[in-house]
Specification:
This protein is of the alpha+beta class and 321 residues long. It has 11 helices and 10 strands. The chain has helices spanning 14-28, 42-48, 92-105, 120-137, 139-150, 159-162, 165-190, 207-221, 223-235, 262-273, 301-310, and strands spanning 2-7, 33-38, 55-58, 61-62, 80-82, 85-87, 249-255, 278-284, 289-295, 316-318. The termini are far apart.
Length: 321
């Protein structure tokens, strides 16, 4: 496809008109050979069939259907109708229609298919929903970090999402897979015989973007496995906030069945170390045990148990070591 821009020196609308043509070409996914013709005088204007500056021709045909039969050649500024007004540039609508008309007229093109992506909103919805589902599947370990950092809510607030995690991960996979299937379907349609896919990549789904979204979903879905490191970076590894003597130290082990993610361990450990009289708190997510060393002279077992319960966890005692 050949696009010509005819103009004369000093025309203020020459470059804006050419820029608009290039924008529409990009939007339509059409590649074209662009040429510019400077009309120096009235004689050249008559010879070139110049209807004024700027004039845009596609494969030798003026973009404005009403002007194609005109013989009013000369050195004048040209205007176009747009929205009932005279303006100095051809509208995008006029340019787009002329491009499609020219594409239909090319050999091998039974009908022109603009590579628009009508399914794009649906695909974006599927990808966005897959990210949301992945976040939901990881809230069991995201919320403890948020709570520990802000002090709003209870550390175990995300425990309810643990039972939903397998289902949410399944939904995540289904939504992401559907997004890829829809994207591939759009790609195949865009590259069907008679389309412009063979000459330009415009109109194809960006698989780089899809890959980025897929990587994001995978990272969010896998968050519980590295949430402990994130929690330590956000919350920090707290030291006891009070000086504790060694004379009356006691140790108690709690079994905490719903302490099921590394982020919970870091957050609860930091909370326990802030309790007056607590010398140390060692928590293990695999065994779901919390070993708390405290000064029995200044702190009692019931108060420590209350701290754990207030954090939203359930307690089962294990014999003291």
């Amino acid at each position: 496809m050949k696009v010509e821009a005819l103009y004369f020196d000093g025309c203020p609308n020459h470059k804006p008109a050419l820029d608009r043509v290039l924008e529409v070409l990009k939007e339509e996914g059409i590649s074209a050979e662009i040429s510019e013709m400077n009309i120096p005088d009235a004689r050249a204007a008559r010879a070139a069939g110049f209807l004024g500056s700027p004039s845009i021709r596609i494969n030798g045909v003026d973009v404005e259907p009403a002007a194609r039969s005109s013989k009013q050649f000369g050195m004048m500024c040209r205007t176009y109708m747009e929205g009932g007004k005279r303006v100095g540039l051809p509208s995008r609508k006029v340019i787009r229609a002329a491009l499609r008309e020219a594409a239909e007229a090319q050999p091998g093109h039974e009908s022109f298919q603009a590579p628009a992506e009508p399914a794009a909103p649906k695909r974006r919805w599927l990808l966005g929903a897959s990210v949301a589902a992945a976040i939901g599947a990881s809230l069991c370990c995201i919320l403890p970090i948020v709570v520990a950092a802000t002090g709003l809510g209870t550390i175990a607030a995300g425990a309810v999402f643990e039972q939903w995690r397998p289902r949410l991960l399944s939904v995540t996979g289904l939504l992401l897979g559907a997004g890829f299937v829809l994207a591939y379907s759009d790609y195949k349609k865009a590259c069907a015989p008679g389309s412009v896919c063979g000459t330009t990549p415009m109109g194809r789904v960006s698989f780089v973007t899809l890959g980025t979204v897929a990587a994001l979903v995978a990272a969010v879905a896998a968050f519980p496995y590295y949430s402990g490191a994130v929690a330590e970076a956000v919350v920090g590894r707290s030291s006891p906030s009070h000086t504790v003597g060694s004379a009356a130290l006691a140790k108690v082990t709690f079994q905490i069945p719903d302490m099921d993610c590394p982020a919970c361990v870091v957050a609860l450990s930091a909370t326990l170390r802030k309790v007056p009289g607590v010398a140390d708190a060692k928590l293990d997510v695999d065994s779901r045990k919390a070993v708390v060393t405290y000064d029995s002279g200044t702190q009692n077992l019931a108060a420590i148990e209350k701290v754990i319960s207030d954090a939203g966890f359930h307690i089962a005692f294990v014999p003291r070591s």
